[in-house]
Amino acid sequence: MKKKYVGNPDKFQALALGKRTYERQPSFSIGGAEIKCEESATLLGVEIDYLLSYEAQVANICRKASKQINVLKRIGKYLTLQSRKAIFHCFIMSQFNFCPLVWHFCNEGSTNKLETIHYRALKFVYQDFNSTYDDLLAKAGSGSLKLRRLKAMAIETFKILNGQGPVYLSDLVIRKESNYSFRYTNMLKLPTVKTVRYGTNSFRFCSAKLWNNLPEHMRSVVSISEFRGLLKTWQGNACKCAACR
Questions:
Q1: What is the pLDDT of residue 231?
Q2: In this structure, what DSSP letter does residue 224 have?
Q3: In sequence order, what DSSP letters do the residues of 89-134 get, joined into one string?
Q4: Distance, CA of 189 to CA of 212 (rounded, Å)
Q5: CA 204, CA 133: separation in Å to the nearest integer?
Q6: Is pLDDT above 90 for 157?
Q7: Following CA atoms 190, 233, 170, 168 in sequence, which dihedral angle do they give, to the nearest 10 degrees?
Q8: What's residue 118's pLDDT?
Q9: Which SS3 state, helix, strand or coil, does residue 217 take?
Q10: Engineering a disulfide at 239: which of 16, 142, 223, 244 sits with its beta carbon 3.0 to 4.6 angstroms away?
Q11: What are phi and psi of 151, to 5 degrees?
């Protein structure tokens, strides 16, 4: 006998993307239950708002990370550097590394807020309150949070191109076909977009632009481990999206 699962309307969530659409307050009727569109919805731990600004998601990340930093601040002087690093990576960086490509296209203020929290955490990890953010990043052998997200996007693009990514993402990246022989190879087709929020600030557009700006020798490798190794020395390109300005 097959089990029949009954949906719980109290757990249903709906979003109407865009200010004009949201102001009309659309609703859906499913199984006799009315589902109203909300200002934001939490999906798999990521809070998505109707404007796709991700301000609430970034605020949650900063709040959770700040709580862990305060703990590190209180007990850090009693711990070794190795122990402080372990706490940093397990409890603080894990907040920044959760679904970063989803909320990468947050606004400039949210991006700066994340970098400030990261800077504060590094101060307590190394017990160094005088060095600049760049100096602490060099000491940690790491890059900024923005650079880490760009590298994650490059890796995801590489996986899609080589058939190692999820099938549902395969149509987001399209190779550029040409009958002519150009100096640069293995380029991606840059999609035509009409808006910033739903076009330029999208994985489909930014992944193609990021990939095309990578050095030729990085785009030509076929091993994911080799590609990851090359990314370690890559310091990013001049990006003009809302998250990087």
A1: 93
A2: H
A3: IIIIHHHHTSSTTTSTT--HHHHHHHHHHHHHHHHHHHT-SSS-HH
A4: 9
A5: 31
A6: yes
A7: -120
A8: 97
A9: helix
A10: 244
A11: -65, -40
Average pLDDT score over residue span 55-65: 95
| Identity of the amino acid at 189 | K
Per the DSSP assignment, residues forming a β-bridge with 35 are 28
| Residue 38 per-residue DSSP state | B
pLDDT in tens, 7-54: 777 788 888 888 888 888 888 887 788 888 888 888 889 999 888 889
CA neighbor of 20 nearest in space, from 44, 1, 2, 37: 37
pLDDT at 243 over 50: no
Least confident range of 74-83, 183-192, 208-217: 183-192
Nearest CA to 19 out of 47, 49, 41, 51 is that of 51
The pair of structure tokens assigned to 90 is 């397990």
* Side chain identity at residue 35, one-letter code: I
CA angle (18, 23, 27) in 5-degree steps: 95
Dist. CA 156–CA 210, nearest whole Å: 11
| Token pair belonging to 182 | 């150009």
Distance separating alpha carbons of residues 158 and 218, to the nearest angstrom: 10
CA distance 19 to 238: 30
pLDDT value of position 112: 95
Which secondary-structure segment (H or E) carries 208? helix 203-212
- Could you tell me the two tokens for 66? 């700040």
Q: Which of 119, 196, 188, 195 has the alpha carbon at shortest distance from 158?
A: 188
Q: Copy the structure tokens of residue 114.
A: 């994340």
pLDDT of residue 18: 85
Residues 6+ apart with CB under 8 A from 16: 22, 24, 25, 26, 37, 50
